[in-house]
Amino acid sequence: MQWEEVAAQVRAFVTPDDGAAMKSRELILGMLEHTLKPFERGQFAPGHLTATAMVRSAEGARVLLVHHRRLNRWLLPGGHVEQQDSTAGASARREAIEETGVALSEDAPVLIGMDVHGIPPGKGEPFHLHHDLLFAFRATGEELVVSEESRAVLWAWPEEFDKYEIPANVRLAWSRLPWFG
Asked: Would you say the pTM of this structure is higher than 0.90?
């Protein structure tokens, strides 16, 4: 994966209704342009690129959530970019499948959000930032599997976002989620 390709995709993402995403866009572009290893998990200053999947259920009304074991909270599936990932979207797809066992359509992932956020120290890593790209996917089935990284996985209705403490940036991204063909 080349940083120039990711930077072009990030530059093309513009959402005037989401100031936080636009600020994250600036930070992600700066990180990509001014760090030597933006995709490497071991780069802690200023952090590294990660990829997250917002998976719309097959019927289109629910979103896939994982209860993250280490962070002890409900999140979208996602994580670190690996060397074998051809694109950031491919990284998000791989993470969603690894973490939940979800079956995904072959539709191309769509960049629908971005967020730079802090990760607490743990597992021998210092506090650092994840420069996260959020991609939309569509599931083709309902079946899910809990991975070692998670305590639970589930399909959540938008009306349940408060119950699962879904942050504002994810709620805004949900409102931009494409229906796919």
From this structure: yes
